[in-house]
Write a structure and sequence with these properties.
With 440 residues, the protein is an alpha/beta fold. The chain is elongated. The two termini are 43 Å apart. It has two domains: 157 residues, no CATH class; 247 residues, Alpha/Beta hydrolase fold, catalytic domain (Rossmann fold, 3-Layer(aba) Sandwich). Helix content is 31%, strand content 18%. Strand 6 and strand 7 form a beta hairpin.
């Protein structure tokens, strides 16, 4: 039996009555109160006299979800809307309604598969490192306990299976604070300041040098933003690298073409080399990475002659030690992606047409069902790389489409797989140390 109850459209919630003992075993807190109030009253969450099946003895109650996450154009706006939604939750109205219908217990989600939560938790925030936090300012669980307890209604809270164990917390992280990026302008062109966001290792020591990984976001050279590789940057900073996510010009914001994007990518890598002493970078351990169009830019820094910003010192090279490419555009001709945006420059801007010996060691992740960038392009790229004597490892993901690798709060299977394979690849090149013993 399932009920849908609403009061003045203020707090919709779905209730299921048929609860099995097997499910009861999985509930995170089968309590009569939140931990905070249990501590205040010096009483255990569940006493020795608690029956084996307290829900059955109680009679009946309601089990609800509070999962609807607001839509917004930015993450900060979503977080603020979520906080406002939780702030508006009428706990007294709900408790009164439950009392009127004779409910003896009430369950609600404390966390969502989306990564949004109904109560604050500083420890969780420090581990996950999201900014802004998706945990609410209001402790809705505590507020519910207060309202229900005085009416003799038991409160239970639970977590969906997707949270929090799927959050991309490196397994070696032990309650480390979130790494906040340092912003630096790496290039100013036509009154546009392009920024690099640098994530430093938690135990960074000035005077020492570190390997660096530079990420370029995807978006068809039209859109996209640096947040795409924020989680990747957090991970590799904790692995002892300086991780950098770079802005570059795109059509939607700057009315530019892929040609300017290539120039910006080269400028960024050149800037990392030129500023190595200031940034703490070991120039012999530069890795360049990106996804889709960003993968094209990463490959372009190592393969394409020309496309340099006028006035820059081209004696400072842009070739890196390694490339890590996520469903990259490697062929910009009519048999690949982007020819219509490049016109007569399609071949000149196509990495697969400019492979020579002494290319960076390359790792590519690609879905075999990608309809944006054909998988056959990647096979061709690998064949040419290997024929020229270069290391090029391709990891195919069967039946996966474009963008499968991205970090997603609800399903991180492919994000985690690609992160771990990238880690192993960089270890194999001696660019980072192996994971400490005892860690996955």
């Amino acid at each position: 039996m399932t009920l849908m109850i609403t009061t003045a459209n203020r707090y919709p919630y779905r209730a299921g009555v048929n609860v099995t003992p097997a499910f009861i075993f999985l509930i995170v807190v089968l309590g009569l109160m939140s931990e905070t109030y249990a501590q205040q009253e010096s009483r255990p969450l569940v006493s020795a006299k608690t029956p084996a099946n307290p829900l059955q003895e109680a009679g009946w109650g309601l089990f609800t979800h509070y999962l609807k996450v607001p839509k917004a154009s930015t993450e900060a706006e979503r977080v603020e809307l979520w906080n406002k939604k939780v702030d508006r939750f009428d706990v007294e109205g709900l408790a009164s309604q439950l009392q009127k219908v004779g409910a003896k217990y009430y369950f609600i989600t404390i966390g969502q598969n989306s990564g949004f939560y109904c109560s604050p938790n500083k420890t969780y925030d420090s581990l996950v490192g999201r900014n802004p936090s998706r945990l609410t300012r209001r402790d809705l669980v505590a507020a519910l306990y207060k309202a229900l307890q005085k009416r003799g209604i038991k409160l239970g809270v639970y977590l969906p299976s997707g949270a929090p164990e799927n959050d991309s917390v490196p397994s070696f992280s032990q309650e480390q604070p979130a790494i906040r990026p340092r912003e630096k302008v790496y290039k100013t062109v036509n009154n546009v300041a392009l920024k690099a966001y640098l994530y430093y290792p938690p135990h960074y020591q000035p005077g020492k040098t570190y390997p660096v990984i530079v990420f370029f976001f995807g978006g068809g050279w039209v859109s996209g933003n640096v947040s795409q590789f924020q989680q990747h940057s957090q991970y590799f900073a904790r692995r002892g690298m300086i991780a950098l996510t770079a802005e570059y010009r795109v059509a939607s914001r700057h009315q530019t073409t892929p040609i300017q994007a290539i120039a910006d990518a080269k400028s960024c890598v050149r800037w990392v080399r030129q500023q190595a002493n200031v940034l703490g970078v070991d120039t012999s351990r530069i890795v360049v990475s990106g996804g889709s169009a960003g993968g094209h830019l990463a490959a372009a820094t190592a393969t394409l002659p020309g496309f340099d910003e006028p006035g820059e010192d081209t004696k400072v090279g842009t070739k890196s030690r390694a490339l890590v490419l996520f469903n990259p555009v490697v062929n910009t001709t009519v048999s690949g992606y982007g020819a219509e945006k490049l016109g007569t420059q399609a071949v000149a801007a196509s990495p697969v047409h400019h492979i020579t010996k002494n290319m960076p060691s390359t790792l590519i992740f690609h879905g075999t069902a990608d309809t944006v960038v054909p998988y056959s392009n990647i096979v061709q790229f690998q064949a040419k790389m290997q024929a020229a004597g270069n290391r090029c490892q391709v990891v195919p993901f069967e039946n996966q489409g474009h963008g499968f690798f991205n970090y997603r709060a609800q399903n991180q299977e492919y994000y985690l797989q690609t992160i771990r394979l990238t880690d192993a690849f960089l270890v194999s090149l001696g660019l980072i140390d192996p994971m400490p013993a005892g860690h996955k």
